[in-house]
Amino acid sequence: MSYDLIIRDGTIVDGSGLPRYRADVAISDGRIAEIGKINGSAKEIIDAEGHIVSPGFIDGHTHMDAQIFWDALGTCSCWHGVTTVVMGNCGFSLAPCAEKDRQRVIRNLERAEDISPKAMEAGIKWSWDTFPQYLDTIDKLPKGINYTAYMGHSALRTYVMGERAFTEEATSEDLSAMKRELRGAIKAGAAGFSTSRNRNHETPDSKPVASRLANWNEVRELVGVMGDLGAGVFELAQEDIERDPERMRDFLGRLQRLALDTRVPTTFGVVSMRKAPHTWRPYFQMIDETVAAGGRMLAQGTSRWISSLLSFETAMPFDKTPVWSDMRQLPLAEQEAALRNPESRRALLEAAREYMTKPDRAIGAEARKPNFDYLFLFDKPLPPYRSIAQIAQEANKDPLEVIIDLALEKHLKQFFIQPIVNEDQDIVLGMMRHPRSVVTFSDSGAHVSQIMDSSIQTHLLGHWVRERQALTLEYAIRKITFELASFWGLQGRGMLREGNFADIAIFDPETISPTMPTLEYDLPAGARRLKQKSVGIKATIVNGQVLMRNNEHTGALPGKLIRGPLAASA
Ligand SMILES: [Zn+2]
User: By CB neighbour count within 10 A (0-12 exposed, 13-18 middle, 19+ buried), where does 405 fall?
Assistant: First the structure.
């Protein structure tokens, strides 16, 4: 037998959660031809001795909708073993969109997800009105990894209602038009429908994004479209109910009824918060009850805190004060000079100290007023990290001085981790152990200069599996492959079986880890973003072709648009 590719002598962790075993994998025509002892030849052989061979990772929560137009590879996810992503989360898709509404659709995205409007204006090649036309565009684009896309509620509302989408509830005509568009999108292969009801999602002028103007009936009617068609996943960014048990009960009850009435698979992020440490539990309880009653529901978790990466290259908490704001306009070297000058340093410290006494309002992943016990020096790729409070105490120094001195040591190229949620890593572990949660929620493609969570998969494997030995490799791999493929109905992916698509990650379990992030100005229009790669991944294979070898792009662009089941049967 002659194959396209043989992976020799690897240890297979196949995505199912079953124990590992040694075997070769043969690939032909983009599919796994055989797993076992393989005697045939191949055009290419990868020696996987000492390495794990697993399904390529699947990320169910990304915002790659804009970057797919300028970044064929799918960074930074593709550097962490990810071979398939779901985009269009939280109501933010670029379709449907009439030509006159392009600015409005950008407005929905830019602050809520921190994607530069200049980069979007320069980088997105608009050629669609409707969602089916958009899918055809994505289908034709060169792609490193596989994509599947939701239709987002903010875009849908804007398409149907124009400027009214940002100010009004939908009329019955609006609603029928939205339902018609959604039906068309699901039939053309949309992954489902997403929405946001979350206060973190604002436009640049501090107004709610369009989907937040929808009443619950509008959401129910739209999700009902998918229920009637028997296809599509519903994803939502939740309502803000955290400290109000009454509102929480009301929201969870509505969500459960919707999932059970429509039978639409429903998914959302669940995080814990230091200030309300038990609010994540009712979510899991509701999910368990929903599943017990016959619904399908999945919690999107992550493998660590979700944090703002503070630095003088990105954002610092005090940037809003006039003294800091003036200094922060300067080139980095001049900022360094200002911080080394005793007089201007004193003024900056004074402004920061004063800022610490006032309330502030940050949304999403914006830098917020620091709590020094929960601000960490990011000095290596994996935890544990020392807090600024701890370092200050050891050095008997003022925490603000510590931050400035540490930054100066690195010529201001020092990041600090400011967790926004999931501060407690034991709770994170507890959530990862829950059978109704997966590790996803990277927000890859969004918050590009604020957070860098495209590395949650390599963090999972390096920190929790290897260093902490808190999860088995088999379990961890299933949480980033098969469980996602099953929920989203990604046929033939997420598990290594003969006949399945050859989406494969080959990595060294002894070394796999993220590397340190950097800030780069490589987006269209020179916009900035955080970039993070990994070590320990020998090869990433997408649809049978090697996309990455030792995390270097091979030149292949084997990614595909994955359409939903109704498109496949059309
Ligand atoms: Zn999101």
Answer: middle
